[in-house]
Known about the structure:
It contains 3 helices and 17 strands.
Amino acid sequence: MSNMSFEPYASRSHEKMKEVLMNPDAQGPAVHYYMIRGGSKKRNITVWESGNVGGEYIKTYGHYHVGDLDETYWIVQGEGIALLQKMVVENDVPQPERIEEFKAIPVKAGDSVYMPAGYGHLVVNTGAQWLVTADDSPVEGAEDSASMPGHADYEMVKKMRGFAYYIVERDGKPALVRNPLYKEIQKTDFGGITVAEN
């Protein structure tokens, strides 16, 4: 076997997640979530740790898709919230600090959620169990990394230290807190979730 063989397992460490946390100095689990990538043929499985980091529920890093790629997530176990956001594009240049549309979609076992092309997305575990999803996003082969797949753009999310809103625990329930680095959010659908002050 060559050393270019594809390794399907990847995990996302607390160290890496600090780039997108509301409170990067807060203590958290060593690993926030685990991924086993099988691509569109075998599906990808993601498993989230439960709990929170500095009041913010455990989430995926979040990314925008490169190119005209959509994706469906199936929730296998647990409950959470999917966040979708679309950047304003001016003269073919995405504006990471300006959001055309932001959506929060509560999900639970048995649900599916569709991530349209052009939308960044992440998923948050708001329950007490592992959150487990399957999805049909592609994996590009041996030169592609399971931890940083080629179809995903993480840089825009890293630059903004996360999405336009963080999901935090308030009185035992999820609430949204706006990320102050975003200058403009044109259209919002909070899915019935409370918006809290910092």
